[in-house]
Design a protein that fits this description.
heterodimer, A: mainly beta, 6-stranded mixed sheet, 5-stranded antiparallel sheet, about 0% helix, globular, B: about 50% strand
Chain lengths: ~110, ~110
Amino acid sequence: GIQVEQSPPDLILQEGANSTLRCNFSDSVNNLQWFHQNPWGQLINLFYIPSGTKQNGRLSATTVATERYSLLYISSSQTTDSGVYFCAVEPGGSQGNLIFGKGTKLSVKP
Amino acid sequence: GAGVSQTPSNKVTEKGKYVELRCDPISGHTALYWYRQSLGQGPEFLIYFQGTGAADDSGLPNDRFFAVRPEGSVSTLKIQRTERGDSAVYLCASSLFGSSPLHFGNGTRLTVT
């Protein structure tokens, strides 16, 4: 099956710093989504981004489907950005079965 | 309600017992998903409903696990003869239709003693 690899696995930032999280996938996908799981376990959908670039406030994401990767940019990080960021892909030829990576755990220090 | 609602939020049961976990999706969402998340891992797909039917149940680990969505809205995940290895957070998500953004509930933390 498709493999989803996220890097780095852990990241510690000082408040105000910028960061880039990466998601590589091993096969073609129908769509790709980024999620943030806060320290209380709630999963929030950040982006639905099968290709191209989207921005939402301090966050932006870019997916290059032909090269099988996606990037999540966090600018001017805040302590509330802490948590785990997951990339999830829907393999080409299937529907509904989102495969998650293992996540990047982000800690933003004040 | 405005979001995906899951009940109970916590469930403790003894090995060998039967449990039911409930999910109430966002109103109007036709697609519903069940995932399972163990500590330190990403969510693991279990089953996907489109309307009343299970479009993909390839993630159900064995025949002790079963899920229904009889009227195309609320769904129930049923686990028979629970085992300690079933302990995890069970997450439900819904989307407007298949292959659209998923919205997750807060999960049910299942502990099998």
